[in-house]
Amino acid sequence: MAQATIGNSEFDRDTAVTRREPGVYEARVSAGWTVHGAANGGYLLALIGRALGDTLPHPHPFTITAHYLGATRPGPALVRTTAVRGGRGLSTGQASLCQTAPDGTETERVRVLASYGDLDALPADIRTTAKPPAIPPYEHCAGRNEGRDRGRDEGRDPVPDAAAALSERLDVRLDPATAGWAVGAPSGRGEMRAWFGLADGRDPDPLALLLAVDALPPTAFEMGLTGWVPTVELTAHVRRRPAPGPLRVCVVTRNLAGGYLEEDAEVWDTQDRLVAQSRQLARPVVKRAG
Amino acid sequence: MAQATIGNSEFDRDTAVTRREPGVYEARVSAGWTVHGAANGGYLLALIGRALGDTLPHPHPFTITAHYLGATRPGPALVRTTAVRGGRGLSTGQASLCQTAPDGTETERVRVLASYGDLDALPADIRTTAKPPAIPPYEHCAGRNEGRDRGRDEGRDPVPDAAAALSERLDVRLDPATAGWAVGAPSGRGEMRAWFGLADGRDPDPLALLLAVDALPPTAFEMGLTGWVPTVELTAHVRRRPAPGPLRVCVVTRNLAGGYLEEDAEVWDTQDRLVAQSRQLARPVVKRAG
Which residue ranges does the record assign to the Acyl-CoA thioesterase-like N-terminal HotDog domain (chains A, B) (predicted)? Predict the structure, then answer.
């Protein structure tokens, strides 16, 4: 397989939108980015984010929030966008992703609110106390399939997440310290760390960061929970254009309470820059493991 | 002054909204909750949040995001709400706060997207690794006015934030370890911790948490920056109904880059429960202190 590039890759093709009229975009939700048959939230955010980037005068999502109203299935979709405010450095817009049932009923699946800017126009100053995640070198981290196969060899069912079509599109290499869940030995800590890339070798760009913040297995798995962890709301801040090469993603959950948990993600590039931060509120559909 | 109560307090009166027709609410932005003449973002979020709570079938903002489009001034305002989706446990809505100029032009100041639920319907389970902030007892923390007066005694100008009408409405007692900025000696760390209450003694409720997450002096002050730190976007998760009594609020900034910074806030109640989390993206209008 030839090395894919930004603009010519699975991710670009599967997040493409076609403007039908001002503020109305046709899209096709790909079956390639699903988990348990529903499109991944980060993938949908990237697709909607692409439509908003076309509508608004600025190219990059500085802060983007999605509320997931229901599962989005592979197939045709419409993205309706509205420009809310245009300023010199930032513009704000809103979008809805809708799907039409066989009976003609249109249902909204995702509602998005975002402010866009131009990352390339920002000054280079940095003052940071954030540290890149302590994660072993890429070659010491296991791909998902390795974890799955190990579990299978030991007579366990494949880990739930491994059924995901999504995992075929990604090159996610989990830190062994947060991969215990895959072999039935979760650490009990709500942490997930991994190297993250696209399977076809496409380098990251701002839209791919929206995928990266929601692409790791749920932290709940390392907390000993199994099942489905649907996102209620996800907000991502894109802080810098990522350098080429694999990203490091670190996701932490501190508080599972009242049936909800937060997942805080950081994304770091090969130049040790914090390129994105996100937080999501999710509601695990929980069964205790074991 | 008699002890104020939930439903009968300055905060309740100044965030009140009157339904004019379905989805349209009249409000009056009070001069009492301003900083440098512009209404505080958390106060506006509480006011808009009250209108959304009236529109939606659920009472409490589980996750609420505001994009601040421009400064909101004291005076009349309209809040327009739309119900996006209603579900069994959660409903999603959107709102805009608008003000009308003397020439009749209506300008949108804040756009909000939120999902509401019922905190009182959640199970009591908690699994948390989050720890309450290490903050000295209430009586050892200084009120804002004390810091300001100390600065004045030493011949410095009043600290910028002390000019805020907002500070009269709040009982904010800063941890001395994060109050150096008020006497010209910022720590250099992007942290701010305080006890937080309403000046009239009203106990906290879910709407007051929306105020609490945006009511401390900017972390940028402790990083040695002065000036105005307007919020681009703020997302708050309300995780639990707060117990009566003062809250502890801890705000941390890790990354100031490209002219933007994040402020992550946690709010804890008197029962040592994490009752709210928030993150905002802000863009300091910076001049170096000293």
Answer: 31-116
Question: In this predicted model, what pLDDT tens digit does every residue of B210-260 receive, in sequence order?
Answer: 999 999 999 999 999 988 899 999 999 999 999 999 999 999 999 999 999
Give the nearest partner residue to A262 out of B125, B262, B277, using CB atoms: B277
Rounded to 5 degrees, φ, ψ at A142 are -85, 140
Residue A210 has phi, psi (to 5 degrees) of -65, -30
Provide the sign of the torsion angle of the four alpha carbons A195, A199, A203, A205, taken in this order: negative
pLDDT, mean of residues B165-194: 95
**Residues of chain A with C-beta less than 8 angstroms from the C-beta of B114:** 67
Best interface-test mutation with B: which of A254, A274, A285 has the largest number of B CBs within 10 A? A254
In chain B, % of residues over pLDDT 90: 85
Chain B residues with beta carbon closer than 8 angstroms to that of A190:
129
Looking at residue B205, the DSSP 8-state letter turns out to be -
Residues of A with CB below 8 A from B119's CB? 258
Among B130, B233, B259, beta carbon nearest to A254: B130
* A255–B239 CB contact, under 8 Å: yes
Alpha-carbon distance of B200 to B246, in angstroms, equals 12
CATH number of A138-288: 2.40.160.210
Considering only CB atoms, which chain B residues are within 8 Å of A267?
none
* Domain locations along chain B: 10-119, 138-288
How far apart, in whole angstroms, are the C-alpha atoms of residue A233 and residue A283?
A: 10
| Fold matches, A10-119 and A138-288 | yes
- A chain contacts of residue B254, beta-carbon cutoff 8 Å: 128-130, 274
How close, in Å, is residue B125 to chain A by CA atoms? 6
Q: Which residue of A has its CA nearest to B130?
A: A254
Yes or no: domain B10-119 corresponds to CATH 2.40.160.210: yes
Per-residue pLDDT at B88: 86
The mean pLDDT value for B106-122 works out to 98
Half-sphere exposure of B85 (CA within 13 A, CB side): 21
Q: What is the ipTM of this complex?
A: 0.93
Min distance B288 CA to chain A CA atoms (Å): 13
- What's the pLDDT at B163? 61
Q: How far away is chain A from the Cα of B3, in angstroms, using its nearest Cα?
A: 31
pLDDT at A87: 85
Q: Which are the contacts of A64, defined by CB distance < 8 A and separation ≥ 6? A: A45, A49, A52, A112, A113, A114, A115, A210, A235, A236, A238
